[in-house]
# Entry
Amino acid sequence: MANGLALRKAAREGQLSGTTTGQAPGHIQANLIVLPAVVARDFELLAARNPVPCPVLAKTKIPGDPHSFAPANLFLHSKDLSTVIDIRTDHPAYNVYENGKLLATKSDIKDEWTDSSVAFLIGCSFSFESALCKAGLTPRNIDLGRNPPMFTTSSRLNPAGIFTGATMVVSMRPYRPEDIERVREITRPYVKTHGEPVAWGWNALDELGIRDVNKPDFGPVTEFRDGEVPVFWGCGVTPQVAVMAAAEKIPGKVMSHKPGSMLVLDITEDQLFAAENTSIQPLGLVINGH
Amino acid sequence: MANGLALRKAAREGQLSGTTTGQAPGHIQANLIVLPAVVARDFELLAARNPVPCPVLAKTKIPGDPHSFAPANLFLHSKDLSTVIDIRTDHPAYNVYENGKLLATKSDIKDEWTDSSVAFLIGCSFSFESALCKAGLTPRNIDLGRNPPMFTTSSRLNPAGIFTGATMVVSMRPYRPEDIERVREITRPYVKTHGEPVAWGWNALDELGIRDVNKPDFGPVTEFRDGEVPVFWGCGVTPQVAVMAAAEKIPGKVMSHKPGSMLVLDITEDQLFAAENTSIQPLGLVINGH
# Structure
């Protein structure tokens, strides 16, 4: 299927319940976290204070409303968003948590969604990986048809409200030292999906507090080939780990997509990341009346 | 003098060359960094990837133009910005650096400003300090009429372009453990001026790699009173240290304000930070045509 609208419709109608990996190539795919409104502001701050591992693409505007997102320009397909997006149904599959424990995996979260639910869409690494492929620097995990290995680190997140004490999770891809500057340049513009690496080289293991590069905390081990060194990126598992670590302070249920079952957006990578068309906005405030 | 316009005019006309501390109470004051355009994008990315220690309030829109800033809503006083702000003259005093070395301290930088100069305004801690005073939690450094002690840490910044290997600088203020949640709440909304603390308690020394709380890297030692523990905030010295560390990769001169000689803005703290009027924007991209 070629576009986001078709994939979301298939997910909503129960025709698609598996992975979206490799579907609708060139379109942005997003991770999901749904929280009760009482902790949503803290989560928004956590992401704003840690944008590299926690790049928020959009959030629902009003607690309980599963249709309207801000910013709206991620959803280009239709003028009438209410007919297009229903965040309770448009992922192929969802995980439901309570007190940090997985309660169920479901094809929709209509029964779990409440008047206080707020949804966050978070960027994923598919975008910069396809850019690396196009440049002839295919990530090893793509070559092997796997996920990349992921590691918890000692790199502290800037705390926000109930979210304290969490650290960054990173993904790792091996590259030759002479390719690292190009890898940095190619991934740099992808600011909404982790951007350039956070660390590289064998020294990075010490810098990030990673003991053994062959013992990832998430995902499978990968292969190093001649002369390659590890290159680490901020990873979207970070906000999930931070939310789970704060589970005792979150009243009610937390929902997320089932890993691999992403929301496929209408906007393409070229539209979101065309380097000449982008301008970085500083951590921003909307000032009322100005 | 009561407002930003009057203070900037006095600075421009050579009537004010000292500190702006305590002047125009309630108005936002900003730190300055001026870089050549060729490295400005990397600096903008460094700040966007590390918004807690490097909160960019605004930047000049076009290299070489010292008048027009984005976002423009920080400068409310006049519709015609070109008559109001000249970033080359409107700080009371400037430092000029080359290859990481201080060349001169001057009352304006008209001679140093070039067609490729880009200016960044960076938030400072005055705003949250006055909020703490109002709440009866006056920071010790204000009590003592000093700067707070500042420390380099082992907390790595997310690298961006030429800016690699830098770590966060933090400021420290002592508080009683039972006051820390209130201190966090009071400073949390000040997202443009470092926001809530990054770490607190005696364990934070280990977490941040600080050896001796009585040996600050910048600023004077402070006093602990009965039962107080250290509370650490991201500090605006961080971007200066990162720029100095990359000095060899920066062609030409770097300018900054002389410490204490800030740009006083027209906007007030109440306008910028009124909690009910603010909405956090995720690390943003402007998408062309949408």
Chain A touches chain B through 51 residues (CB under 8 Å).
